[in-house]
């Protein structure tokens, strides 16, 4: 765990991308620097040539960034190319990102980016083996830890339990975890009989936490939770974070995923998070 222990503490921040106009992350950084201690940027390899110019002012001002790739997949026939990995390494270097996280699943299918149609990983040993290979390849290419993120689930395929899947993935790939609280809530709804979930997850390897607003969707099989980042944070997600937080000894960052939220609501939420979960940047 030595590498994880050496990672910097970033504090509490927000997520965005080059294509998102709300909230105004530049305005929030300028007007509320104590509330926004880092920015997590969703990136694709093609952004490598755009980021140095588009973020020049923020980089010069010393804003801390996390690069969050959104195109690495578990398709065994679509291993990231050398060019894609080189571009990600350049992005990590430009942003000074201390780690890179991504949901474990399929973002690209037959060469097409799925966007909101992202497919969560099947909890199988075959998928686990591919995930270990992908994580090692990215870490070797970027030189920083690749944090594996639990994906959202409407339904679950595969016989492995989420906790044992991610515990083994972290151990075999020698890395840490990004724990997405809303995604975890969706899994608990999709597989309610997994009562040992919190005890099996590698909570001692959690470096970053994601928190987001979301919406309940009624289906024929019961309610599904989808953290769409645009809604209010639901009470169930807040309660789950409060339950988990004392059990995360290595947490370095809490990211409020707030794309499409108005600035005033983001400020209010960040102020509340700083009070509830003090995590001074260092």
Structure, described:
- This protein has 282 residues and is α/β, with parallel strands linked by helices.
- The protein has one domain (2-276): TIM Barrel.
- It has helices spanning 2-5, 25-31, 51-54, 56-60, 82-95, 125-142, 162-173, 181-190, 197-200, 235-244, 263-276, and strands at residues 11-17, 39-43, 65-69, 100-103, 105-106, 108-109, 112-113, 119-120, 146-149, 177-180, 206-212, 215-219, 222-226, 253-257.
- An 8-stranded parallel sheet has the order 3-2-1-14-11-10-9-4. It has a two-stranded antiparallel sheet with strand order 5-8.
- Helix 2 (25-31) links the parallel strand 1 and strand 2.
- Helix 5 (82-95) crosses helix 6 and helix 6 runs parallel beside helix 7.
- It is globular.
- The two termini are 19 Å apart.
- The model has no long low-confidence stretch (mean pLDDT 92).
